[in-house]
Amino acid sequence: MTSTEFLISGWSWNAAALLVAAGAAMAYVRWFGMHRRIFCFAGALVVFLLTLISPLNTLADGYLFSAHMVQHILLLLIVPGLLLLGLPRLAAFAVRPRLLGHPFVGWSAGVGAMWFWHVPALCNAAVTSRPVHALQTASLLVLGCLFWWRILAPNEESRLSPPAAVSYLFSACVACSVLGIILTFSPVTVCSVYTMPVKDPLRILATIREDWGLTPERDQQIGGLLMWVPMCLVYLGAMFAQIGRWFAEPVTPVAPKLP
Questions:
Q1: What is the SS3 assignment for 86?
Q2: How far apart are CA 123 and CA 146, in angstroms?
Q3: pLDDT bracket for residue 210 (50, 70, 90)
Q4: What is the pTM of this model?
Q5: pLDDT tens digits for 147-190?
Q6: Helix (H/G/I), strand (E/B), else coil: 98
Q7: From 133's CA, which of 85, 118, 143, 144 has a CA 20 to 30 Å away?
Q8: Hey, CA dihedral for 182, 186, 191, 194, is it positive or negative?
Q9: Residue 71 and residue 60: Cα distance in Å, rounded?
Q10: What is the DSSP letter of 77?
Q11: Is pLDDT of 7 > 60?
Q12: Helices marked H in 97-197
């Protein structure tokens, strides 16, 4: 199979993902109406669907560790971030995570998700078992929302102050960079199922290995670099947004002291 043929036939019509996206869209319109933030919410649903039904999902399903890593980044950082940006301020009154909204819980959720799902046994299980893969997908979305809540909550009161938010994001970038460096330079043992796929229904493996030049070693190195560089670029962009928010805050004038 050629690369062009794969891009056409590599789509997988995931009924569960389509139903979830349709249900979320109907619930949003019912609760919030055609709010101006609906474009961010719609963007989240589009990215969610592309992540799970496009050729990217086919490649992540046992062929390429790097495709699997792109899925993780999209499901943990991009989709949850867009979902929260799509919520109007009134949603904050219905969603009050309390303990789950604590910064340490959110930070641990976002960083821990990547470390947890790259334990070799769990990584292999998520690729070879449909129920585990569904659990992984759901957990990445939930943990991603917990991570972004204190940064992108619909009401300002639930967000961290800009200096605290920058520290929160920078430390998350460092923690994920460490894992990315480990994956980049370690032997191909993190997700060994990608070394030799047990199934190749589309006959694309020869194209991946020969035409694309993606050996298992190079594939894992790219996956590690994806966690190391693009993830930190997402965090860096969010840090710049927080710095902009900091400088945009109105300065409260200090009354002069009377003699």
A1: coil
A2: 22
A3: confident
A4: 0.88
A5: 999 899 888 888 889 899 999 999 999 998 898 888 888 776 77
A6: helix
A7: 85
A8: positive
A9: 8
A10: I
A11: yes
A12: 103-116, 120-128, 130-152, 162-185
74's tokens:
């999209």
Handedness of CA 202, 203, 206, 211 (dihedral sign): negative
**DSSP 8-state secondary structure symbol assigned to residue 119:** S
Give pLDDT, residue 2. 78
Tokens of 65: 């560790």
Q: How many CA atoms does the CB half-sphere of 72 hold within 13 Å?
A: 31
- The size of the chain, in residues, is 259
Residue 194 structure tokens = 């990608």
Residue 147 CA to residue 78 CA, distance in Å, equals 12
Phi-psi region of 173 (alpha: psi -120 to 50; beta: other; left: phi over 0): alpha
In terms of phi and psi (left: phi > 0; alpha: psi -120 to 50; beta: otherwise), the region of 161 is beta
Orientation of helix 162-185 relative to helix 103-116, angle to 10°:
10
Percent of the chain as helix, strand, coil, to the nearest 5: 75, 0, 25
Do 51 and 71 contact (CB within 8 A), yes or no? Answer: yes
Written as one letter, the residue type at 67 is A
Judge whether 181 and 231 are in contact, CB under 8 Å.
no
Q: Identify the pLDDT of residue 99.
A: 62
Whether residue 171 contacts residue 104, with contact meaning beta carbons closer than 8 Å, is answered with no
